[in-house]
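Give me the fold.
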Amino acid sequence: MPKKSNSLSTLALQKFKKNFWGVLSFYFIVFCGLIAIFAYAIAPDNSQNANQMHLSIHSKPPGFNVKMLTIPSQSLTDQSFFDRFFFGEKNTDTELPIERYVLTNDAVKIYPYSEGEVIELSKEIKKSSFPSALSMSEIIDTYVKEKTFILGTDKYGRDLLSRMLVGIRISFSIGFVAVFISLFLGIFMGAISGYFGGKVDAAIMWLINVTWSIPTLLLVIAITLALGKGFWQVFIAVGLTMWVEVARIVRGQVMSVKQMQYVTAAKALGFTNYRIITKHILPNSLAPVIVISAANFAGAILIESGLSFLGIGAQPPMPSWGAMIKDHYSYIILGKAYLAIIPGLGIMSLVMAFMLIGNALRDALDVKG
């Protein structure tokens, strides 16, 4: 008969599996993580930053369908498979939304999409613009396709679904990097402060209280302006503002755990402070840190979205959900609210998933439960 494990980690995992919303949030986060990794592989627009613009079909509703003529670029782009997979294709082809076309001997006469206007402007695309080996009928079969925009287009005529898929990368990246920085600084400062006490504790607590007293968004803006606008600058800025809460929690846990008898025994055996902290105190102090990390992940996503909304986060043409709301919030009163609601729902669902999984972890790791 197999012996049932009674380890704390096993019991915590069993309690977590019984939490429906926690498990559902976990699978949703994994699903979003897979989308972030394979974003360019599944996005309809796999150009870099999903930035293929079609101004004639801007702000179209979900499910919009149009004929698209692709004029291949004459210049060759040298790009590896991994570069295309992770950073998108350096697409220099020209895409033209058209209503109809007429074939001639040496050209394709097209009528660009014109919002149903009476006056039709035509344009001729010479056969020399396409590979010479193809006949006119083969050119049409190869380069004229029906294209459906599942979530519609933004105000620049870009595919909103592709922008949403690639934008998940921004949210996940800012969460992981910011939480890593906050954990590294918070655990280090909190452990030193709680273990050594005295003047070391007073100095670190002074730094924590000063940082804590500054509004988070104001501090992030100041750090961002000092480091400059950009992708990585936002990561560092958000991480440097989130370590304080981790440090306070770790400090309290370390001050409690260091009074235990096994810590006193370790000191009596002559173990170094480094070994006592890393091998005996921290492993027994990190349960609340795991919970706060999930909340910090959600907070980092919200802060990045706020910074992008203010224009000092991820810079165009990089797709950020906060910047997408900024670009389209005025459309709410113009009858096209979905342009701002769709990225808003993306932010809300991802933040809610991390908050729910944080609550589930808190219940699972609660030894009194």
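The mean pLDDT is 86.
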